[in-house]
Specification:
Chain lengths: ~300, ~350
């Protein structure tokens, strides 16, 4: 029973990180109908930014509350900029082209980032994973029984941040002018433009927002894993994508539920079956979901308009 | 591409039209045999030639799905892995068996072809299993599912004792010869070309251009998509089998996402939908790193730079995709074939309707 509870907690903590990354996929898909393949790699770049900042701050500074805030702020702002650049120079010129070209571009960017960061030329970090500095020192928040169940502080923090961001995002999308503009662009960006909505700006802002979210999620992941590597973006990104599809892509609460479900399923497979199968779980689950409920748990399969 | 209309009486030859596509093989096989004989003292050249051949098979077969049908599969290495492992395991278990009614060399080759076919069929089966659920959905889901499939294959291999887990399989008989590789290259190209010209190919083309319209015209879109997927993964399996029989060891590291991306880059560079484009791009992209490596080795003999070629290749592929999509989304040849692009050195005889 205690074991079950522990797995439940670990799974939820891992799931919240997937959920945060999945939110980025869902938002971009919502406005552009594009699977932003490079999302996970933008996240990876953000983690490296945080890594560099944490080192620049020094041991004393980075574990203080201000230091943590600076690390997160630098990574999130840097990623927002990166997201803006990618959107402006790679996706925007292709917006009216067939969707396949944008998808190929996204795959290309993902590949260039994840393998470019494996070079050890100039400032690039090289392929070897590096230990992520202890930004948030792990503290046992709650211990039940004889260490049967342990809740770590970062688990609670990432869960809290994820829930807060989800609520914030839901508010942003459904209660603000910007959110209304986003929904309009998502519905039909040509008509939205005719109604005076600056579609380019809305799309760019959406990209920046989703990239910043990814950076935050990536940092939480790096703190949990205590390591950072150029390929982390590919794997975390893919799993987050699976989470977004499970929840129904384009659906904000769906992404969160999908992330939590995926985190739990993975944790249970690792806990009760074998940890070596972990990476296959997400994709097996994806194929299963697509087979049974192609629109995801919350999504609808929209008939294609001609 | 000109589809020959009803041949004029004088164009009639002794070979029935359905077999005319096989004619190049009659010319090519002796040349290849000669090649193999000449190269028998140059193991590296033989190896390189085989790698080029395998990559051509992979690119041309992927082009059936990504180019002709307009779907986007990025898990081709997964099917290659299925073919490689299944045929590899089969060859390993048949190692000591020889068909008594055949000479040893011939019996080896017969068993090898058998293993290849089994590997190909296994890959095709996987293609069917993956394709069936995902092809009912839109293209971008397919991309993810194929990618996920590749990962699942990798994890399964890493967890199966029969496949040697992470260490891989070694000691597979080295039965692959350039002649065998290029026989399959030929077969793949033949099938791809025959598909393009057939009504089957027209349906694929229609799906590529507009799936909704194709369906409205009565094209069984799901059926055609799954079929093209099965054909494509069959040949990927064959390519994997060929590969497994000339490299000293196969391990899960040979069939990662990187390999899939390499094939995708070949197809996109050559032009989605162009068979000869895929051939040219596969040859070029396989030989380019080797060429650069030997160039650096000759120039400065600076080991580090020559080693970096392999490292730099991957990010360059990524950037190449982005630049291609921005500047020339149709690739080098678009949907045309080599002979449509090259200047006509020899004016072609006009045929068919005057």
């Amino acid at each position: 029973m205690a074991q079950l509870l522990q797995h439940l907690i670990n799974g939820l903590a891992a799931g919240t990180i997937y959920a945060l990354v999945a939110l980025g996929y869902t938002m971009v898909y919502g406005v552009l109908k594009l699977i932003n393949f490079a999302h996970g790699d933008v996240m990876m770049v953000g983690v490296y930014m945080g890594y560099a900042t944490a080192f620049a701050l020094g041991r004393e500074m980075r574990s203080s509350l201000v230091g943590v805030a600076i690390v997160f702020a630098v990574a999130m702002l840097g990623c927002a900029l990166l997201g803006f650049i990618i959107e402006r120079f790679a996706y925007r010129p292709l917006r009216e082209k067939p969707r396949l070209t944008a998808l190929i571009t996204a795959i290309g960017i993902s590949f260039a980032l994840s393998y470019g960061f494996q070079l050890d030329i100039g400032f690039l970090p090289g392929a070897a994973p590096r230990a992520f500095p202890e930004v948030i020192a792990p503290v046992e928040w709650l211990v039940i029984g004889d260490r049967d169940v342990v809740v770590w502080n970062w688990q609670v923090i990432s869960f809290g941040i994820a829930v807060a961001l989800m609520v914030g995002l839901q508010y942003l999308v459904f209660r603000t002018r910007f959110g209304r503009a986003m929904r309009a662009v998502s519905w039909d960006h040509r008509v939205a433009a005719l109604m005076g909505i600056p579609t380019d700006r809305v799309i760019a802002l959406t990209f920046m927002l989703s990239s910043a979210l990814a950076a935050g999620a990536g940092l939480l992941y790096a703190i949990k894993d205590t390591s950072v590597s150029p390929l982390m973006g590919l794997y975390v990104g893919l799993k987050a994508f699976v989470a977004a599809v499970i929840g129904g892509i384009g659906h904000v609460p769906g992404a969160v539920v999908g992330g939590l479900v995926l985190g739990l399923v993975e944790e249970f497979v690792v806990g009760y079956a074998a940890s070596t199968w972990r990476d296959a779980v997400a994709f097996g689950f994806l194929i299963l979901v697509l087979l049974v409920k192609p629109g995801g748990l919350f999504g609808r399969v929209a008939a294609e308009k001609v | 591409m000109e589809t020959p209309a009803i041949p004029a009486p004088e164009a009639r030859s002794v070979v029935p039209p359905s077999l005319r596509g096989v004619l190049p093989l009659v010319v090519a096989l002796p040349v290849l045999a000669l090649f193999q004989w000449v190269l028998s003292d140059a193991p590296f050249a033989t190896y390189l030639l085989s790698v080029v051949g395998v990559n051509i098979i992979l690119a041309v077969s992927l082009n059936i799905v990504n180019g002709m049908t307009g779907q986007f599969s990025i898990g081709h290495a997964g099917f290659m892995a299925v073919g490689a492992y299944i045929s590899g395991v089969m060859s390993l278990s048949l190692k000591d068996i020889a068909l008594s009614f055949l000479p040893v060399a011939a019996s080896d080759q017969v068993l090898f072809v058998l293993a290849l076919l089994v590997g190909g069929v296994a890959a095709a089966l996987c293609g069917f299993l993956v394709g069936l659920p995902s092809l009912r959905l839109r293209g971008d889901y397919l991309a993810i599912v194929t990618l996920g499939f590749g990962e699942i294959i990798r994890v399964v291999v890493q967890n199966t004792d029969a496949f040697g887990r992470a260490l891989g399989l070694s000691g597979i008989p080295q039965s692959s010869t350039p002649a065998m590789v290029y026989f399959w290259v030929f077969l793949t190209v033949l099938v791809a070309r025959r598909i393009t010209g057939s009504s089957h190919g027209r349906s694929l083309w229609a799906i590529r251009e507009d799936e909704v319209a194709a369906e409205a015209m009565g094209v069984d879109t799901t059926g055609y998509k799954v079929r093209s997927f099965v054909i494509s993964s069959f040949f990927a399996g064959i390519a994997g089998g060929l590969f497994a029989h000339f490299v000293p060891i196969i391990n899960p590291g040979s069939f990662t996402f990187v390999k899939s991306m390499e094939i995708v880059v070949m197809v996109v560079l050559g032009g989605l939908g162009s068979t000869t484009g895929a051939i040219v791009a596969a040859t070029f992209l396989t030989l380019l790193p080797e060429g650069l490596r030997s160039l650096f080795a000759v120039l400065g003999a600076e080991g580090s730079l020559a080693q970096k070629v392999d490292q730099i290749r991957m990010p360059v592929y990524g950037l190449l995709l982005v630049v291609l999509m921005l500047a020339r989304p149709q690739g080098l040849f678009g949907t045309k074939e080599l002979w449509d692009v090259l200047p006509r050195w020899i004016p072609r005889k006009r045929r068919g309707l005057a």
